[in-house]
Every structure is written in structure tokens, then in C-alpha cells.
Amino acid sequence: MPVRGVIGTDYMTVRPDFKVIKNPFGEDDILVVPAVSPEVSVIHAFRADRFGNCILNSATDDALLARASRKVIVSAEEIVATEELKASQRGYFLSRVHVSGVVHLPGGAAPTACGSLYRADEAVLGEYLKAAADTANFGRWLWEFYLKFAPGGES
Amino acid sequence: MSVPYTVEELMACLIAREIKNGETVAVGTFSPIPATAALLAQETHAPDSEVYIMGSRDWWPFTEGSNEFFHAAQRGRFDYFFLSGAQIDRQGNINLHAIGSYRQPKVRLPGGAGSSMLYYMVKKVILFKTDHTVKSFVEKVDFVSSSASSPPSVYRTGGLHLVVTPLAVMARNSETGFLELLSVHPGHTVDEVRANTGFELQWHGEERQTMPPEAEELAVLRGAVRALVAKVYPAFAARAFGP
Lengths: 155, 243
Hints:
The structure holds two protein chains of two kinds. Chain A is an alpha/beta fold. Chain A folds into three domains: 2-32, no CATH class; 40-119, no CATH class; 121-155. Chain A has five helices and eight strands. A five-stranded mixed sheet of chain A has the order 7-5-4-6-8. Chain A has a three-stranded antiparallel sheet with strand order 1-3-2, with no helix packed on it. The longest helix of chain A is centred in the C-terminal third of the chain and has 15 residues, at 135-149. Chain A starts with a strand and ends in a 6-residue tail after the last helix. Chain B starts with 6 loop residues before the first helix and ends with a helix. In chain B, the strands form four sheets. Chain B has a five-stranded mixed sheet with strand order 3-8-10-11-12. Helices cover 29% and strands 20% of the residues of chain B. In chain B, a hairpin with a 4-residue loop joins strand 6 (98-100) and strand 7 (105-108). By secondary structure, chain B is α/β, with parallel strands linked by helices. The interface between A and B is medium-sized, with 24 and 30 residues.
């Protein structure tokens, strides 16, 4: 993929996979970078149908991520019928073509925000930062966080 | 002496005055001062300007994420963008990546994101820094995440326009390639600015004092603009404006 700029920065010295070529359509030198192709992406949707069609937050790059990945798991705040999904007024429609599986997971974006549905939880993000300072601590914190959302948990 | 003002108000006024009516102004994340400046310009002398503020609901017309925004930038669609850096050097290079060595950094910063492209493709990039110290303005950055200069063979339609700090305004001398003083803010001295800059700083033309905010600018800032900024940066809007 071609990208403007970058040539002249130190990224060129630390990324041997970044190449400079002559622009075949112009006179200039241009940077080309290898595509990022994740094995698996997990993205969170406002809503999805049971076939994998979904409505994403249009401010994010999740649709691009889905198209670049081999396997795509969509978690969704709600599962609705296809007709209802297609009638959605807001958000970005991603086709089931790019989706491998769907999970119904209300609150799945927490502790980060989910569009206008809920805000980022600053207190929990603060805990996350503190816990992430050491590995053992972080494992414990993550398990406790998971338990809150596990079936039969607090929420 | 004019009405007292905060340093954020001053910096926002200085940036806003640069924006001409009809220009397209894009503001990135964690940029409350540039967002304030863009909205101030729009509320005063630049009503026909386009303002995009990343992370906002009201000033983000893009529907396909930052991907769409960066593609528009690569097409040269933006007149203004605003960058900062943990370090800015004498040549106007920016470091948003690492303090110390790249492999074993003393501090690993968030990274350059799109800035290594934006610095080339946005017509006028304004650097803003909320501190002006010898640690932030250095002779040479530890890692160049955005380069102020590039080989002539590279397509480049934009670059550094101004540097705005709590003490002064600087610009790049096109002949020497070095940052120079454009004006020093009221209440500060040239010696103070030089003592807080990690490289030798000369005057760009004659010595000048920064024009402080005018009463009218402050009235708009503290009225309409503060209310708009509160939609994107509520904590900043509550703290950074005068009474």
C-alpha cells in the first residue's frame, strides 16, 4: 500500500519492511508498506443479525479491520432481525460477507465507550492502568473484571 | 494592560488569528487548545471555515473512521492540522514515539499515529506545546516521528507553519531550517524563553511582543466558544477559561 510522507522520519530506519519505490504514476519517490492482515479480529457492534450483518460505530475503523482480517468475531449489544437491522438510521452497515461469528454481549465494549449507549468508565480504566503495571496483578484484575460480566455475575 | 486572560486563551487566540475564512481546519485527538482556536475563528472572522474535531460528535462528518480522514488528508484536503510532541527540535522535527533509544526507551510514548504523513500533506501544521522547557525543546529529538524536512524527491504540499507555546511563538527560517522567535508573550522575556529552550534561539526579523487577546476575542471565547468546547472537552472548558 502506498502512503504519503514518512520518508525522512526514523520509522524508515526501524522498519525494514517499509520500502521506497519510484511512483509509477509520477516523478516522486513514495513509501509502500505491507498490508496488516490479522488472523482474528474481535469487534463490537451496536446491533447484529444472526447471519453476521451488523451496525458499527461509524467513527471507528472496525469495518476496515474486519475486511483486513481472516476471521472476524462480532460481539453485539443486541441481536435483531435482518429487516430491522437494515432499517437502522445510524451507524455503519458491515455485511456478513466479512463476519465469521456473532456473540450477543451487552456491555461488551466496557470499560471503553460504546457510541452514545454508554461512556468510558474512567474509574475502571484507572484501575486497569494500575493493575497493568505488573503481570501477576493484571491477571488477577482481569479475572475479577471478567467475573463481573460472567453469567450469574453482578451485571 | 488589557483584560486578564489564561495561557490557554492566549494560545487559542494566536492560533485562531492564523485561520482565514473558508479554510479547512482539522483537529486531532487530545487537542483542546487547537479545538478552541478553530471554533473561535469560526465564531469570529472565519464563519465559512470547515472545522473537523476528532473524537467529537458535532464536528466529525466522516462515516468511515479515521481511515477516511487520513485518506482525505493524503489528498491534500486540509489547510490546518495541529501536532504536539514530547520533544520538538531546532529543525522542527517532532518526537511522539520514544524518549531514549527506540529499542530500550526510557519512556515509550503513544506513537506518531498519522503525524508522519500529516506533517507533509496538511498545508499548514501548527505545533502547540503546553510546556516550554529545555526538555521539550531540544537540539535534536531522540526519535523523528514527524520530519520537518524531506528529500526533494518526496511529494510534499505542506509542513510547519508556527510553533505556539506558553512563552512564545516560533517559526522556521526557510534558509537556515532552524526555529526562530517570532514573538514573546506579554509578561515574559527573551532571556526567559532562551533559558527554557534547549537550543540557540534567534529572532525571526525584528523583536516583537505577542499581541494579547482583545476584549472582543475574550468575550466570544468565554461565551459561545466555551459552550461549544464543553461538548468535546468538558473538563478543559471548566478549567481553561477566565471568568
